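FIELD: query
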Amino acid sequence: MKSLMICLVLGSFCLVAPDAHGDETTARLTVLETTDIHVHVIDYDYFRDRPAADIGLVRTAALIQQVRAEQEERNIVLVDNGDLLQGNPMGDFIARERGLERGEIHPVYKVMNELDYTVGNIGNHEFNYGLEFLSNSLAGANFPYISANVYHDDGDDIDENDTHYFDPYLVVDREIVANDGETYPIKIGFIGFVPPQIMSWDQAHLKDRVIAKDMVDAARELVPKMKAEGADVIVAIPHSGLSTMTREGMEENATYYLSTIPDIDAIMFGHSHRVFPSDDYADIDGVDVVRGTINNVAATMPGAWGSHLGIVELDLIRNLDGSWEVIRGEGSIRSIAPEGGDPIEPVEELVAVVAEDHEATIEYMRRAAGEITAPINSYFALVADDPSIQIITDAQKKYVEKLIRGTEYDGFPVLSASAPFKSGGRGGPDYYTRIDAGPIALKNVADLYIYP
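FIELD: result
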């Protein structure tokens, strides 16, 4: 028991007063994170039309079950950091081919609703199919969503009266089992953010409907409000990468600066499709890749497509007034395909939940789409003229020329540029396009370029 001893010399009288931590009741809170699933709920590569052991939420779910079993289901919350609804053919099939009416459950939520998520954050790709599709999709989630820096566009350019488009944060009442075996109440706060660049990336869907503001400014305004509402622990969920570029405002990758804001106890970040903690970030001032902290704030970023599970563990101490405070935190990750080990097996019950959607997507992608007379691959796309990219740039050029025909821009020269997305690198050593000469299916066309 920590205490403060005050001794009065006269008479050798001592007064022992307990400090703010009382009897030192402690507990550990574990926060789990998935991020950037991009509709990869099933461990399957729809472009190559074959199973894939290194992706899929149905495999990440096995890691979630693993951690819960290790900790006897105690003191664990699970969050998702967005970019769920777009990113693979199943997403395009649901949004563009089958459609999603209000009341229907999107395949990602058929799986996630079985995993007991506490809260979800909005990612930038959630806006790719428009606000109506997003609304219909979110209606199928049995857990709440947050985003602190997206607002209704009321058109008056007055910041003070702007209202949030989503709930900006969530403070939940939970019970936590302490080291003494007793159960105590705790308030856990969650606050989410999305890159303000959504206003450029999805301008066609968002212009005159919403506005996005700076993530760090939003945190500075709202985190104190969360503390005032009694949040013992505050978990930030920024859909934002880690960069130390000089801050000028409206950063896309603002995680580092969020870690400097008082009272943020943990950061579950994403967007960059990378892994934290890892040696990739070892040279950044204030980052501890062994402990998994950024400026002493526990943090994790668990890759993409279900490749990893993010884990933050927070050691708490209970004050005399019943509140809790974080005294130490650590961040880590677990892989579904650990190096030197066997891939973790999927949770078959979850595979069954989306079996129908999975088979419909495969059938959709196998539709005949034409024929090519020569093979196409992207092996040298970064160093030489490349047919896989040329096809895309030609298509873009012809599309725009058709759009401007008969307008004041008719006859203007059109230039077209396209990025070599499937050229190894972050996607892995086999992340290339290869299409043999002969008949081709929709999966081959989609494989040329990951955005429809």
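FIELD: remark
The CA atoms of residues 133 and 174 lie 32 Å apart.
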